[in-house]
Write a structure and sequence with these properties.
Helix content of chain B: 10-25%
Number of domains of chain B: 2
Radius of gyration of chain A: 38 Å
Number of helices of chain A: 1
CATH class of the largest domain in chain B: Mainly Beta
Oligomer: heterodimer
Strand content of chain A: over 45%
Largest interface: A-B, 33 and 61 residues
Shape of chain B: elongated
Strand order of the largest sheet of chain A: 2-3-7-5
CATH architecture of the largest domain in chain B: Sandwich
Chain lengths: ~150, ~140
Amino acid sequence: MRMRSRLAVLVSGTAVVATAGVAFAVWTVDGAGSGSATTGTAQDLTVVASAVDSGIWPGGPAGAVGFKVTNPNPFPVKLTSVSYGALGTGGSSCPVDQVSVDPSAPAAVDLVVPAGQTVTSSIAGVLRLASSATDSCQGVPLSVALSFAGAQQ
Amino acid sequence: MTRTARPARLAAIVLVPVLLLAAVAAGAAGTHERRPAGLAVQGSSVSGLVPGRADRLTVTIRNKTRKPVRITAVTAKVRTAPPGCPASMLKVGSVKPAGRLRPGRSLAVRLPVQLVRTAPDACQGVRFPLAVRASARR
């Protein structure tokens, strides 16, 4: 009788352990797979001169330069600096050396171009016409190449 | 008779638990074999990520078991990152979808993905392979 009791205890104890083990095995499932995330590449902004101050005269104050800047990126870009390049007189007989960038022309700008948009703006006090400029420089479309630097806003 | 009966009983006391444990082990193994294949998980490919802008990675989960399951977590981790652009530059969130997923059915969840605002230029045009994982319970 005592033996049967001990046997029963042993059997029931083992059965409990067995049940717990099986139950745990079937209660969770999982799975794994793959995916990827690729970053974009920032595109250069395009800048086009739109208009130059028409009130520039020989020896007068430096005139403004107008421009349109287009941001093809899907994020806004803040322009912070500008540099000036090649000068032009629109293919006229006005010598290019009669045109110059004013030494105090702004080097810093503060312009935000929204994502995918074009902004029109101007920078004052950039182009100067020499006091020795001849009549051939009257009514001539002056130009200067602009180069901006900035970063994602 | 009594001399042989006692060892027999003792042997039974020792052997029965051993046999039961063996049966349990066999049962567990059998359960493992019968255990459904689990979940099939597939992540999508997100492109055009730029610093600071949130996007979504679609993860499709199919219940390959024969019972409904409840998805408890869907996560993704960056497996490798290129030089100069550490894995920490890409933040991938996790989701815990509600409801049950019936056998053979699929569920699409969207994990938030974002390139951090301070990501350097080295992170331009970079592909991050992701390890996607889904867990469920019945």
